[in-house]
Amino acid sequence: MSIFNNFSYCFAQPVGGFKQILSAVTNAQTLSIEFLAQLFGFRCRHPYVWQSESCGFRGAPNSITKDKFITHTLALMGDLSKNLSKLGIMCPCPCGADKISPVLIEKLQKVRNIIGRPIIITSGVRCEFYNASIKASMNSSYIPDDHGIGNAVDIACTNSKDRYELVELAQKFFKRIGISGDSYGGFVHLDVDRSKVQEVMWLY
Fold it and tell me: Which of 27, 89, 109, 203 has a 20 to 30 Å separation from 100 between CA atoms?
């Protein structure tokens, strides 16, 4: 599995993932923006992570050293829970918004503990600008609420067996679940938005 195309998969596996990431960085000729754009691929949804306000890489690309990259990346892995990181839920645009409901993270970690394999978050926090750019609902639970907190995530799920298992398990912890088939990206939506109708499940 290529770490460039599956970087968030590496994040979900702390030991093996660290080794793959460190190996890629150590063996790189240079840490160019192009290299980082490959490393932080679509699956991780944050090609601008090194330019965000919270990131030590903000500034000229040539200021990024291998040591700095390794130190910064390791510090962010698993910073929300045992297996979940801000890198996996932050807004994909340069704003880097990454505040998400602790209740949501706690429930997701419980799902992760029981399911026993990595969960790939394909959509997390979205600022209003990014949400509008993808023509999504402006009432979306991904958009930070009045407290600046995002309340929803989408988890990649592209086959019926995994989808059944995830939805069955999610119902133990979540009261709002959306299901998307492969034609719409193949994901399961989970949120803890108390401002919306509870005990519902819908299809995309």
Answer: 203
Query: CA 99, CA 164: separation in Å to the nearest integer?
Result: 29
pLDDT of residue 4: 34
Q: What six digits make up the tokens of 148? A: 């600046």
User: Which of 60, 63, 64 shows the shortest CA–CA distance to 73?
Assistant: 64
Global pTM value = 0.67
Query: From CA 56, how far away is CA 61, in angstroms rounded?
Result: 11
CA–CA distance, 135 with 131 (Å, rounded to integer) = 6
118's tokens: 């990595």
Average pLDDT over residues 153-176: 94
CA atoms within 13 A on the CB side of 34: 3
For tokens 């592209």, the residue is: 158
Distance CA(102)–CA(100), nearest Å, equals: 6
Instruction: Tell me phi and psi for residue 180, to 5 degrees.
Output: -120, 130
Instruction: Copy the structure tokens of residue 161.
Output: 């067996």
Token code pair at residue 31? 């840490």
Side chain identity at residue 143, one-letter code: I
Q: How far apart are the first and last CA of the chain?
A: 29
- Assess contact for 112 and 119: CB atoms under 8 A: yes
- If one counts every other C-beta atom within 10 angstroms of the C-beta of residue 196, the result is 14
